[in-house]
Amino acid sequence: MRLNRLFVASWLIALIVSATTLMWSCSHRVHDIDTLTVSIPPQKFLLDAIVGDKMKVNCLLGNGADPETYDPSMSHLINVEHSLIYFRVGSIGFEDAVIKRIKTSRPDLKIVDTSEGISFITGTHHGHDNDPHVWTSAVNARIMARNMYEAVAEADPSNAAYYKSNLDRLTARIDSIDSAIKTYIAAAPSSTFVIWHPSLSYFARDYGLTQIALGAEHKEASVNELRRQIETAKASDARVMFLQHETDNRQTSIVTAELGIPTAVINPIDYHWDEQMVSIGRSIAGLTDIK
């Protein structure tokens, strides 16, 4: 009788362990599709192109959200926790907070830094060693896409050839965008542009442009600093000023009136990375998207 009870108890324990293991192994799957999480929409654009219908890609930051002030909700943290892989940009502030909070509940979560291998720009942002806007560059986008491909191919080797084929198509698309922008820039009336927040440093480096940033990271610049920057912009013969869609302060209207140059509204964290990149190039060339 005692042996029977021991047998039943052992069987129940084994059943519970098996069920728990099965539940955990399926926790990062939605309708039998693995889920991945990225930090920002441009990453999702790249990763969607690579994984196709083989995996679902969640994004922490919405199209209208501000990465400087974003605070992940509980549902976003749960999405990360249930992901097969979390792809971070690399130098965005909220990412460290997300990882710190999720590590306690999911210590084995695979985290991939998609900026690995990128040559960083420094000194543009207070509080950041590296300029965080690495995705605003065709050169960097190729590196980020390759890093993503290698991670998903390792996690899902049975579909590696599918992912590689998609990567090749994505790379060709990036090459095409890069070539188009070079054509626009070659015909641009000026190699200098004005911007409020310094979010196009990598774009400027790719194409030999000069970026004059007027703002001070979501703060109004001092009168003296703003005056100095305006004079620099005037002397440079800049022909366009970029405003990000969330930019809204009284200094922007003062600056645009004083400079007397067209403005173009951009959204560097928009999902449609390809359209944004081309639009920026065309605006510098004075072709479109200018007010």
Automatic annotation (TrEMBL):
InterPro entries: Bact_metal-bind_prot9, ZnuA-like. Pfam families: ZnuA. Keywords: Signal, Transport. One of its GO terms (biological process) is metal ion transport. The keyword Transport applies. Gene3D superfamilies: Nitrogenase molybdenum iron protein domain (3.40.50.1980). One of its GO terms (molecular function) is metal ion binding. PANTHER family: HIGH-AFFINITY ZINC UPTAKE SYSTEM PROTEIN ZNUA, HIGH-AFFINITY ZINC UPTAKE SYSTEM PROTEIN ZNUA-RELATED. Belongs to the bacterial solute-binding protein 9 family. This is Zinc ABC transporter substrate-binding protein. The lineage of its organism: Bacteria, Pseudomonadati, Bacteroidota, Bacteroidia, Bacteroidales.
